[in-house]
Amino acid sequence: MSYRVGYFVGSLSSTSINRILSKALIRLSPDELEFTEIPIRDLPLYSQDYDADYPPAARALKEAIAATQAVLFVTPEYNRSIPGGLKNAIDWASRPWGENSFDHIPAAVIGASVGSIGTAVAQQSLRGVLSFCNARQMTAPEAYIHFSPEVFSEDGSVSNPATEEFLRNFMSDFREHIQRVLTVLPR
Ligand code: FNR
């Protein structure tokens, strides 16, 4: 059984280490997962004033999530939280009231930083947001990735076997989580 996974990269940086991590995750994921990036770059800042008539970028966001069966968040930590651009995208997707795109969606969270705690605080913040949005999160394993350019190449290949195995297992567990959630909450 294959599953459609939409993934968010929380960084807008042209040299994003989290984008490299997303490439590694896709390389190492089970064949049954098909990935499509859900872009956040062109979204205006959310306001309730838009609720009656979403602009095209926000409609595209909601349509992209509706077309997926699960979502994966690959995010940096900014000032001990998630980047504003990612929070903005989540706010758009969660509205208008009663049309929350994340309701019951299988979700996983991961992130890389150059610092030693590997986005742990940002991920806790993101988990709180996703919890309110009623996403079905994979709560274990957790994955706090300390990024080193000696380990991760631009194309997403991973030179450290232990890191490679950890990421492969993370994605395999995510596939099982998706299957488990969709068995009771099909989309
Ligand atoms: C950071 N960085 C950072 N790192 C961290 O571990 N905890 C933090 O709270 C922050 N805060 C922070 C704020 C801002 C505004 C910036 C620009 C950066 C460093 C961050 O981990 C590093 O820049 C990563 O490279 C960001 O990920 P991307 O954009 O390369 O994917």
UniProtKB/TrEMBL annotation:
The keyword Oxidoreductase applies. Keywords: Oxidoreductase. It comes from the Bacteria. Its EC number is 1.-.-.-. Pfam families: FMN_red. The keyword Oxidoreductase applies. GO terms for molecular function: oxidoreductase activity. Residues 4-147 form the NADPH-dependent FMN reductase-like domain. It is an enzyme of class 1 (oxidoreductase). InterPro entries: Flavoprotein-like_sf (IPR029039), FMN_Rdtase-like_dom (IPR005025), NAD(P)H-dep_reductase (IPR050712). PANTHER family: CHROMATE REDUCTASE, NAD(P)H-DEPENDENT FMN REDUCTASE LOT6. This is NADPH-dependent FMN reductase. It comes from Microbacterium terregens.
